[in-house]
């Protein structure tokens, strides 16, 4: 890689990483998303790239784990020479002081990168995420309604990081002692000049970070122009936020004539059968499972307690693999699921099982979640060793992160969009069986009820 990319990003889970890649690739930027820290030789093999991504799983890290894992990531991002370094968070800022702490990341970045005040971009209107006066609202994909995050039917009861505070200055403020100012949507008002004036006014407070609203798509280009100008002035800038960062930057670059006005055409063929493996307990994913079963997909229920209690090659895992392979051999699409939504008792049974060893409720949730995603990842790897699927879907951010790491691929590139935030991707694994396979990594809340049917049908 000789040319310097415009942006280098790290996603705090794999679904969020493909979300950022989708925005950049769909805008006409050559983008590759790496699974592990790429060496200079690996980067050189891909030639000149407009954007370099690194798929991570820091959303599941404790602060101590972040202290070890994140400095090498920051060094790798900075080493690309990209002027914009983006720590890509979940669009709903899933985090807490003890798990996936965004505040901890910001503190580590200030030490590692010697960065100036950190822009924190809240909102991704194209995904139904809207920030006003620092308060984040999100669309519920089951009924299409917009809810304040602390009253959101899913996020307010998230099993690991429930959102009790929608004001992101307070939410992130509970994770760090850094001072955070606000650049509000009213100050931006769809105006690049307004965004610049708002930033300058925020600087008068001598903050460590500035939370920047993205309320409507009209605000994207002004915010993107501000971020681009800050990067040019500093030489290299660290920014935190959802894929709203990428949407803002590409809108600004397109407006400035640096990107094609008409995005490139991207298509994906239909497949006869689709494998879906789901570790999500979101109601949106539950609605998608129900729609798939009604359309003829074979549903296979995982017993999470049995799967995590037994060894990886235990009776339950062997039975599940056998049932999936039998359905696939018969030409049927399959949904293998550990939950069908909040009313499914299996999640509570698993947490209670782990709690029997004396763990606190929070520790039991964390440990049970990690154990389940690890075993689901093993199931997927075992299935793909025995049966080729031209395309498969992994539902759930943590499940996606664990599964893709188990598959021994080098990187991903985008094939085509399905729903914003969950594109069809192609695996890059030269010389290995999965090279060229297509996969979709879907966050729990992403997509409408017909999403799995769309994934099978592809993109004409």
- The SS-based structural class is alpha/beta
CATH class of the largest domain: Alpha Beta
Portion in beta strands: 15-25%
Point out poorly predicted stretches: none
Shape: globular
Q: What is the mean pLDDT? A: 94
Q: Tell me the span between the first and last alpha carbons.
A: 32 Å
Main sheet summary:
15 strands, mixed
Helix content: 25-40%
Query: In the CATH hierarchy, what is the architecture of the largest domain at level 2?
Result: 3-Layer(aba) Sandwich
Helix segment tally: 16
- Counted up, domains total 2
Radius of gyration, taken over Cα atoms and rounded to an integer in Å: 21 Å
Identify the CATH homologous superfamily of the largest domain: Putative sugar-binding, N-terminal domain
Write down how many β-strands occur, each being a DSSP E stretch of 2 or more residues: 18
CATH topology descriptor of the largest domain: Rossmann fold
Kindly report the spatial arrangement of strands forming the biggest sheet: 9-10-5-11-4-1-3-2-16-17-18-15-12-14-13
Structural commentary:
This protein folds into two domains: 7-255, 3-Layer(aba) Sandwich (Rossmann fold), CATH 3.40.50; 275-457, Four-carbon acid sugar kinase, nucleotide binding domain (Molybdenum Cofactor Biosythetic Enzyme, Chain A). Helix content is 40%, strand content 19%. The chain contains 16 helices and 18 strands. The chain has a 15-stranded mixed beta sheet with strand order 9-10-5-11-4-1-3-2-16-17-18-15-12-14-13, sandwiched between helices. A three-stranded antiparallel beta sheet has the order 6-7-8, with no helix packed on it. The mean pLDDT is 94.
